[in-house]
């Protein structure tokens, strides 16, 4: 069997277009323009690229993009003051503080200060709690994007399928598990202490890899026909020593020979993350204005 490749880049482009249509209607009918504020601390080159992409895609969707930069050595209080100002700003519907933060800053403390209604990353404990109890809240972008790709391939009925999520981070693994549980999958969360991970992975109809270990998931870990979602973003040196290349947590060629559907890296989950960020910003703006939240 050879897997069908899930084109996350194309799916994300479609999602961004649907967001843009809703944004245009909001502007015409209600004079409302959703606004996303991104705060970047320090000068990590990769973070700069991500933040620039976010700003460009925000504007392309017809929304306002606000960018704030703080130097690497800024005191934590400067970031907290910035977040407080954005919480109070009615033109800002979404706030994203780019992670990771410099070591002298406490990410949990910063996220805790973000108004949960503006927390478009879905990282605030209020939003994590809402997801856990099945209440409406803001869902983290990467797992939300993964779920959209899974539903695109398996249809809306995921009930009873075995899902294995490798990785237990607050940003991907845990919310991914909650979302799949909400879909009535039988969910197992695996991690570094899990025994016989290959056998467990082979039981999965839906296998999500979010560990940050390059090409860890081998072909013989995959159940024939499974849907394999690769959240990994690992930069490794090229074989010929000329620079780096991006690989996922899944050994793509091996896994694709066995899976039914598989996401590539790049061009899979990554583009969905930013598209879902725009969707979450639209959702937050509608909710703030008391307008119905569009289905995307
Ligand atoms: N508060 C916060 N929220 C985030 O959502 C957040 C963050 N901090 N810090 C950094 C990570 C990383 N991240 C990515 C988003 C898009 C791609 C993406 O679009 N990747 C493309 C291209 C990758 C490339 O070529 O470099 C792809 O996979 O095809 C990747 C990574 C969001 N993050």
Name a few traits of the molecule.
single chain, about 300 residues, alpha/beta, Rossmann fold, 2 domains, 6-stranded parallel beta sheet, 3-stranded parallel beta sheet, about 40% helix, binds 5,10-Methenyltetrahydrofolate
How are the SSEs ordered, and which strands pair?
Layout: E1 4-5, H1 8-30, E2 35-41, H2 45-60, E3 64-70, H3 76-88, E4 94-97, H4 107-113, H5 125-133, H6 141-154, E5 162-166, H7 173-182, E6 186-190, H8 197-202, E7 206-209, E8 227-230, E9 234-237, E10 244-247, H9 252-256, E11 261-262, H10 269-289
Parallel strand pairs: 1-11, 2-3, 2-4, 5-6, 5-7, 7-8, 8-11
Antiparallel strand pairs: 9-10
Protein name: Bifunctional protein FolD
InterPro entries: Aminoacid_DH-like_N_sf, NAD(P)-bd_dom_sf, THF_DH/CycHdrlase, THF_DH/CycHdrlase_cat_dom, THF_DH/CycHdrlase_CS, THF_DH/CycHdrlase_NAD-bd_dom
GO molecular function: methenyltetrahydrofolate cyclohydrolase activity; methylenetetrahydrofolate dehydrogenase (NADP+) activity
């Amino acid at each position: 069997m050879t897997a069908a490749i899930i084109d996350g880049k194309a799916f994300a482009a479609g999602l961004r277009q649907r967001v843009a249509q809703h944004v245009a209607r909001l502007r015409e009918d209600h004079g409302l323009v959703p606004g996303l504020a991104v705060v970047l601390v320090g000068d990590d080159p990769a973070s700069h690229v991500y933040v620039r992409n976010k700003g460009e895609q925000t504007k392309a969707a017809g929304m306002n993009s606000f960018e704030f930069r703080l130097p690497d050595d800024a005191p934590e209080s400067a970031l907290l003051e910035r977040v407080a100002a954005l919480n109070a700003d009615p033109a800002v519907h979404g706030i994203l503080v780019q992670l990771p933060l410099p070591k002298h800053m406490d990410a949990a403390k910063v996220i805790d200060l973000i108004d949960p209604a503006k927390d478009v990353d879905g990282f605030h404990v209020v939003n994590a709690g809402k997801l856990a109890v099945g209440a409406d809240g803001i869902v983290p972008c990467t797992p939300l994007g993964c779920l959209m790709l899974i539903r695109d391939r398996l249809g809306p009925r995921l009930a009873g399928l075995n899902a294995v999520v490798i990785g237990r981070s607050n940003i991907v693994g845990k919310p991914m598990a909650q979302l799949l549980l909400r879909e009535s999958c039988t969910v197992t969360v695996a991690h570094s202490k899990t025994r016989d991970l290959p056998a467990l992975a082979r039981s999965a109809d839906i296998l999500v890899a979010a560990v940050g270990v390059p090409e860890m998931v081998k072909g013989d870990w995959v159940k024939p026909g499974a849907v394999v979602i690769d959240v990994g973003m690992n930069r490794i040196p090229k074989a010929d020593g000329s620079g780096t290349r991006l690989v996922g947590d899944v050994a793509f060629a091996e896994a694709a020979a066995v899976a039914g559907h598989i996401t590539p890296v790049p061009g899979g989950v990554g583009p969905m993350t930013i598209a879902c960020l725009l969707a979450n910003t639209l959702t937050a703006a509608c909710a703030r204005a008391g307008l119905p939240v569009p289905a995307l």
